[in-house]
Amino acid sequence: MSGTIRTAELFLDDRGRTAQLHGVGIQRVADAWYAWGEDKSFGDRFTAVACYRSHDLASWEYLGDALVAGEGDLSPDRIVERPKAVQRPDGRWVLIVHVDSADYSDARVGYAVADAPEGPYVYLGSERPLGNLSRDIGVYQEDGVGYLLSEDRANGLHIYRLRPDYCGVESLVTTLHQQDRPELGYESPALVRHDGLYWLFGSDLTGWDLNDNKYCTARALDGPWGPWRDFAPAGSRTHDSQVSVVLPVDGGHIYVGDRWIRDDLSSSAPVWLPLNLKDGQAELLWRDVWNIEELKK
Questions:
Q1: Which residues make Cβ contacts (< 8 Å) with residue 152, sequence separation at least 6?
Q2: CATH number of the CATH domain containing 109
């Protein structure tokens, strides 16, 4: 069946190659979805951010490399992760990435710009937002304002307001922490708004080991935020995956996650599943095989 998503199986692109959609960012553009993923074909060091397009989130057309290795932050001995793209009100696109050294000590966020979603993107540089460490990132946009979600290890999960050009942080909105370990935040953050609530998702700080991801809700970005809760069966380690994006589709939502295989990152499988958000409760729905048409039911 056209548009069939087989959970935890690799996507193939129009060339018959594994679609490099790791740590992916996804945006709807007209009648298509564009996706920017970490190209892990040669391991964890940076080669490129690959860009793809799809009309059903199952069949992917390779559009080329949106950002490629070069010098400085983008040197081939560096780490470039979590590519998230967002369109500014002026129509230009900004690609935001986590950039780091091989030992993850730099902890910076980088910015690149382009005239089209597929790029090519021109890299502008990186920063530690407001002087803080920045590792896993997410982005959110509302009413023309851009926001950066940034994990700062021992100082929590920050929500920042971006500058009007989206190429730097302007101010801090709020910082969230874990309930049981208030000195820590969550990584791999994703944020959506639905039914008058903001829904924030994240993963515990367990390195390459998977865990029970959490979510919390609030009526305003600056809080107060409710308690962190499971949205997949307890002990399932979020069906052995880590959240990358929560994607609104046709009135429903899709959980977009990764199974990270440290020694074979290129073949790390995607776990994409329907995510039910209702009455303040989030529930991840397991399906072996499914189609985005199910979200309309």
A1: 132, 133, 134, 135, 158, 175, 185
A2: 2.115.10.20
